């Protein structure tokens, strides 16, 4: 049986698309390989959001060039944000690559498979249920053009999937044992604005809440300038919608936010967080921070630290600014914050946030929380709470895919440890 290996880096959207590609390959009779060397088809699902990610892609392409010399029948496919509008240029630079397709452009992939005589089955792209959780892309692309971001240039403008198509897919997945879906988009708050009737994310959540076998729905990422009160009310009122939001702030200084073209001020963001916490008191919040954006002074960086101290997010994803060719910031600003300052600022945010997360998580000690068990690692089951906390526990029974109640014992900034109380399918909203 021919074998495939899919190499994925980057965001959840790439992971979701890799699951779909695996579904297509399965439908054509391929089986998963454990490494590049064992595969007849290799798919690189790439990310170029930072220079380090792009360098990894280039390194892997170099490795595959060597492999193809030994294994001449090997087919190499590339997708993800490395694939830009200059397809012909990429083909010339990487002649050992057999096929390139834009992220999410599965019709191109299917046409290619027909040309190769190994036709993928249309509609057979549902991810195999190796996990009780599935990622579902609902909107591709982004219309925002934040000054540092390459995504709108690589993934194009926003295109939403029809509501009915998403509901059918989720129903099918739920029948196959999927208990939790995460709806994905660069900006899920834009969902539906280009569809007939303009359904929005709240409408979609409402529909998905009536899928019987499904226990939980999540979504990411939200944009602070676009999130609606209607959505917050849906989180508060719909039992299956988890109380977790990814709400990237990026910086705590108005001048930096303006230069980033984020479309909100610190005050507006602060008010939004207060509204969110008022409407959904159990909410857990994650955010993203970029340190060392062009022109960021020590004082402006201190504003970011103060905002983090004030907001007390559950999780902060931190990155140091790196210029991406083609973006507005790359064209208009000089990357003038020295690398050692960027590293220092990164460390300061990490240290501050580790203390905050540690304090927030320690308050969960003794609490009973519902965990959806995703797998096991080093003799322990692991899964996530509704609030997206990672929980580990020991149990002799097979808990895979179950919703279990866990009493939290030890905590750290990154994870919780606990013991099973029962395995009731409770709707305990913690
Ligand atoms: S909202 Fe901004 S950061 Fe997010 S994908 Fe769109 S352009 Fe990039």
What does this structure look like?
The structure is a single chain. The protein has helices at 12-27, 51-70, 87-93, 106-115, 151-155, 163-175, 201-208, 229-237, 254-260, 266-279, 298-311, 328-332, 339-362, and strands spanning 3-8, 31-32, 41-46, 75-80, 99-100, 133-140, 159-160, 180-185, 216-220, 244-246, 284-291, 315-320, 368-377, 380-384, 390-393, 403-411, 416-422. The protein is 35% helix and 22% strand. With 430 residues, it is of the alpha/beta class. A hairpin with a 5-residue loop joins strand 14 and strand 15. The strands form four sheets. Strands 2-1-3-4-5 form a five-stranded parallel sheet, with helices on both faces. Helix 7 (201-208) packs parallel to helix 8 (229-237) and helix 11 (298-311) packs parallel to helix 13 (339-362). Bound molecules: iron/sulfur cluster (SF4). Residues 142, 144-146, 149, 151-152, 186-187, 223 line the site of iron/sulfur cluster.
């Amino acid at each position: 049986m021919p074998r495939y290996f899919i190499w994925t880096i980057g965001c959840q959207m790439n992971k979701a698309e890799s699951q779909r590609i695996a579904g297509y390959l399965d439908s054509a009779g391929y089986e998963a390989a454990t490494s590049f060397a064992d595969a007849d088809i290799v798919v690189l699902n790439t990310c170029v959001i930072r220079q380090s990610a792009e360098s990894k892609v280039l390194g892997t392409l170099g490795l595959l060039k060597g492999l193809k010399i030994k294994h001449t029948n090997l087919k190499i496919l590339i997708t993800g944000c490395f694939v830009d509008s200059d397809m012909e240029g990429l083909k010339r630079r990487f002649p050992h690559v057999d096929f390139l397709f834009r992220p999410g452009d599965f019709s191109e992939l299917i046409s290619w498979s027909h040309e190769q005589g190994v036709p993928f089955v249309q509609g057979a792209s549902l991810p195999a249920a190796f996990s009780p959780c599935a990622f579902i892309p609902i909107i591709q692309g982004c219309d925002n053009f934040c000054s540092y971001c390459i995504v709108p240039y690589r993934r194009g403008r926003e295109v939403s999937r029809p509501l009915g198509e998403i509901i059918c897919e989720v129903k099918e997945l739920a029948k196959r044992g999927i208990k939790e879906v995460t709806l994905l988009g660069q900006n899920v708050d834009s969902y539906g604005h280009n569809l007939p009737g303009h359904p929005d994310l709240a409408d979609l959540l409402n529909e998905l809440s009536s899928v019987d076998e499904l226990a939980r729905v999540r979504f990411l990422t939200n944009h602070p300038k676009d999130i609606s009160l209607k959505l917050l009310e849906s989180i508060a009122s719909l039992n299956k919608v988890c109380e977790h939001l990814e709400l990237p702030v990026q910086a705590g200084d108005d001048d930096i936010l303006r230069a980033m073209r984020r479309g909100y001020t610190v005050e507006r963001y602060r008010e939004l967080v207060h509204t969110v916490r008022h409407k959904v008191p159990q909410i857990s919040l994650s955010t993203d921070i970029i340190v060392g954006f062009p022109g960021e002074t020590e004082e402006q960086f201190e504003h970011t630290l103060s905002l983090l101290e004030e907001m007390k997010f559950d999780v902060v994803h931190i990155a140091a600014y790196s210029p991406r060719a083609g973006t507005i910031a790359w064209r208009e600003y000089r990357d003038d914050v020295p690398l050692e300052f960027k590293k220092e600022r990164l460390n300061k945010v990490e240290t501050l946030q580790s203390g905050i997360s540690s304090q927030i998580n320690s308050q969960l000690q003794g609490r009973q929380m519902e965990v959806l068990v995703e797998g096991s690692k080093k003799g322990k089951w692991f899964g996530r709470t509704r609030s997206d906390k990672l929980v580990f526990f020991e149990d002799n029974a097979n808990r895979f895919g179950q919703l279990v109640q866990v009493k939290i014992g030890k905590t750290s900034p990154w994870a919780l440890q606990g013991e099973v109380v029962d395995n009731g399918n409770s709707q305990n909203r913690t």
